[in-house]
Amino acid sequence: MNKYLVYHGTPYDNIGKIINNNFYISQGDQHWLGNGVYFYPEKFYAYKWNQNRINKMNRSGIEEKQGILEVEIECEVDKIFDLDTLEHKIILKKIIERIENFTSEDIEGTAINILFNELNYDEKFNMIIATFALRRYVMKLPKERLDFLPEKQICVKNLKCIVNLKEVEFTKEEIEKFDHFIGELTKPIKFNIQKEEAKYNIKRKVIFNKR
After folding, report:
1. Among 165, 142, 184, which Cα is nearest to 70's?
2. Using the 8-state DSSP alphabet, how is residue 3 labeled?
3. Spatial CB neighbours of 122, under 8 Å, sequence gap ≥ 6
4. To 10 degrees, what angle do helices 43-59 and 172-185 make?
5. Beta strands across the sheet bearing 127-134
6. What angle do CA 182, 44, 144 make, to 5 degrees?
7. Which of 43, 158, 194, 198 has a CA between 20 and 30 Å from the CA of residue 21?
8. Cα separation values, 206 from 17, 72, 199, Å
9. Measured distance CA(74)–CA(76) in Å, rounded
10. What is the rounded distance in angstroms from the CA atom of residue 94 to the CA atom of residue 92?
11. Which residue in 54, 3, 16, 9 sits closest to 151, CA to CA?
């Protein structure tokens, strides 16, 4: 049995309810990994999720305090549908190819719900792991091959996997660090691309000529 320490962002008023009564499963094809309870292995991403929600609520004129839960999950390896592996990614791809009348925003959630709700994958697997390449933070690198954030998510399908949970209390230093990370990630890096590429090509020629 493998154990995973993960984090879940939620409105602060939900913290006590979840600790006392456990989570409820979010429903709908719009969720990236289908129906389930969502977690991040990294605390920063739960914090970022909260900040995104705060900004969204503020735009609507709503003030809402956010909280984070630290959760321990237990799950056998063969009960994990791991979309970071080629085998499981191909299974999902084959389902996606058979779906008609979908939108690009909810195709993965639709396909996963078909797998788990209609093809009985809920009997085989208790949770899903997937890493998403988020490109909303533009770094402006010359070739932009690293212009993404690798955001790993865990979607728990079986609530029995959740064994321990507690509220996370952030230190002032942690909040400052995470706010700094968000600020740095959203601040474009300015490059003189032609100049940088010229320097790179010169270095390549020097190395080649020395052979």
Report:
1. 165
2. E
3. 116, 157, 158
4. 70
5. 37-39, 149-156, 127-134, 80-82
6. 50
7. 43
8. 65, 54, 11
9. 7
10. 5
11. 9
pLDDT band at 159 (very low <50, low <70, confident <90, very high): very high
One-letter amino acid at 25 equals I
Note the pLDDT of residue 64. 75
**CA–CA distances in Å: residue 142 to residues 138, 150, 182, 188, 198:** 11, 19, 21, 12, 11
CB 128 within 8 A of CB 155: yes
Rounded distance, CA 109 to CA 135, Å? 19
Grouping H, G, I as helix, E, B as strand and the rest as coil, residue 167 is: strand
Paired tokens of 11: 């409105």
pLDDT in tens, 74-91: 999 999 999 999 999 999
Tokens of 175: 């909040």
Q: What residues contact 156, with CB distance under 8 A and at least 6 apart?
A: 23, 36, 37, 38, 39, 73, 126, 127, 162
- Whether residue 73 contacts residue 163, with contact meaning beta carbons closer than 8 Å, is answered with yes
Q: Are 182 and 46 in contact (CB under 8 A)?
A: no
DSSP 50-82: HHHHHHHHHHTT----EEEEEEEEEE-GGGEEE
Whether 95 contacts 111, CB under 8 Å: yes
Place of tokens 């320097």: 199
The pTM of this model reads: 0.82
